[in-house]
Q: What sequence folds into this?
């Protein structure tokens, strides 16, 4: 038993996580609007295996110091799938004075993701980036790429730490459906500029079933020629904001993985991802870091002739039984399970011929994930891949939302909440204005 919201009235209601036809669903019933069901994982067997690990190793401590700050709701695109403040036609901006106050009032801030709307519509963005960097905080630009491809623009953003670049693939039809126009040439021009300047980049890929649930491997192949790409995030379309498409085009994390499993001839597979994540969750357990169960991680490594899955270098699959044993011992406490790891798991890993890679690069990239998607810490050889399900009004689970690691700043009063909570708050605001 958990709690969710009615997709119609957004009132809090009881919900269950149920299995049906080999898949996992969040089911709920509103006394006024009836019953609802949303798929949250396609493969029930793998889901239960993963959740056994997750439920024992999860913790209640969020050490994330990264905050998403919407600088404006203005944009140079009219994306049909936009979910940020699309109901408000009056432009809203955050002043540099407000940014200073937010930083002064929140000394924990370590990184600020600048987004909108489209943050590059702000003429004073260079000043904002420079100020944030001067405070010892990492400014990250979240952008559609239109402006940053212009010569000289990125050079003017002194102190910029990294860029999250919207990148939905190479299909013009998908672009028109998602973004209202073709953006392939614009994205590639932006990516070229980021590469020339060596700016760490994450590609954000919005995915929808039947629209762009193919071509993932083509995006993955970009990492060979663009070593500045530190991560690629395959993220399901969310039933939020404009809701241009029906909810049934949303994809579960394992459905996203399944696309790559097919397109890469199982070089990346659900089995490999889950084995890797078990190791990641053990590492998170050491640092007492909580994780979102709607987000899944993997790593690949660049080679001269292409890329390889992390399993080919770090034999995580060889310690599958030991990891399961660690899970049982974890119930007795961290000391007991930690001693078991040191004696029975670590020797298997360090016996690999790639021991140098293991300690020099593998654990360094784990640090990037543990540090809350701080991809600028990642080395140039490896790429972090994430697969993210939607946390929207259909799949909203209060127990999952409590483990959300992202923070979102509310510009009306400079307060903040988790990203999941902010999604719900935004939807309630839209609902109130429409009723």
A:
């Amino acid at each position: 038993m958990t709690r969710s919201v009615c997709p119609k009235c957004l009132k809090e209601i009881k919900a269950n996580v149920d299995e049906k036809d080999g898949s996992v669903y969040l089911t709920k019933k509103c006394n006024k609007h009836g019953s609802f069901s949303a798929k949250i994982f396609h493969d029930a067997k793998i889901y239960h295996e993963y959740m056994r690990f997750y439920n024992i190793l999860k913790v209640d401590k969020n050490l994330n110091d990264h905050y998403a700050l919407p600088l404006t709701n203005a944009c140079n695109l009219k994306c049909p799938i936009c979910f940020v403040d699309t109901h408000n036609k009056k432009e809203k901006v955050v002043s540099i004075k407000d940014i200073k106050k937010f930083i002064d009032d929140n000394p924990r801030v370590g990184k600020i993701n600048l987004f909108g709307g489209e943050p590059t519509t702000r003429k004073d963005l260079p000043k904002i980036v420079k100020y944030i960097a001067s405070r010892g905080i990492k400014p990250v630009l979240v952008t559609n790429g239109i402006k940053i491809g212009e010569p000289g623009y990125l050079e003017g953003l002194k102190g910029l730490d990294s860029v999250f670049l919207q990148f939905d693939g190479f299909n013009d039809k998908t672009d028109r459906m998602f973004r209202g126009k073709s953006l392939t040439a614009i994205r590639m021009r932006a990516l070229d500029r980021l590469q020339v300047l060596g700016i760490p980049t994450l590609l954000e890929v919005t995915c929808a079933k039947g629209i762009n649930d193919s071509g993932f491997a083509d995006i993955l192949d970009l990492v060979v020629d663009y070593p500045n790409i530190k991560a690629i995030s395959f993220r399901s379309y969310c039933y939020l904001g404009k809701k241009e498409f029906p909810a049934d085009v949303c994809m579960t994390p394992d459905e996203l993985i399944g696309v790559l499993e097919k397109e890469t001839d199982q070089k990346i597979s659900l089995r490999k991802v889950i084995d890797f994540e078990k190791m990641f969750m053990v590492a998170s357990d050491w640092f007492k870091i909580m994780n979102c169960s709607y987000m899944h991680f993997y790593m690949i490594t660049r080679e001269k002739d292409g890329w390889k899955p992390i399993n080919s270098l770090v034999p995580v699959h060889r310690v599958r039984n030991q990891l399961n044993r660690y899970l049982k011992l974890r119930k007795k406490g961290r000391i007991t399970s930690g001693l078991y790891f040191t004696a029975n798991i670590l020797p298997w890993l360090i016996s690999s011929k790639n021991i140098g890679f293991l300690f020099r690069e593998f654990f360094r990239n784990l640090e990037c994930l543990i540090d809350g998607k701080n991809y600028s810490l990642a080395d140039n050889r490896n790429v972090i891949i994430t697969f993210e399900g939607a946390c929207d009004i259909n799949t909203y689970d209060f127990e999952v939302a409590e483990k959300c690691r992202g923070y979102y700043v509310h510009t009306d009063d400079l307060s903040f909440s988790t990203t999941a909570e902010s999604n719900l708050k935004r939807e309630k605001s839209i609902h109130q204005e429409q009723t």
Remarks:
- Residues 315-351 form one domain.
- The longest strand covers residues 12-20.
